[in-house]
Amino acid sequence: MRNTTIHMKTVDKILKHSKKKVFTIFNDKIIVAIKLPNNQVLTESCSCLDFDNYSKQDYINLCMERIKDKIYRLDGYHIKL
Predict the structure, then answer these.
(1) Has residue 3 been placed in a domain?
(2) Positions of E strands within the chain
(3) Over its length of 81 residues, how does the chain's per-residue pLDDT go in tens digits?
(4) 2 within a domain of the structure (yes/no)
């Protein structure tokens, strides 16, 4: 019987073996690109709306959470095939 469960540990393992690049453009936009072990690249971005509360690390974390969600969904799609 196939394992039809996705665990966040699996997503974390994939990210551990991935390469990450972070870019700042136009002084207020963060782009995070992740190259997965299978050479697929996932990207996410977000923009600063309020420079008084700007934290680059917070925006990077937000992008990383979105990328984790993408990996989780892609892995779930793969399991259903």
Answers:
(1) no
(2) 19-25, 29-35, 41-47
(3) 455 566 788 889 999 999 999 999 998 899 999 999 999 999 999 998 887 878 889 999 999 999 999 998 887 655 555
(4) no
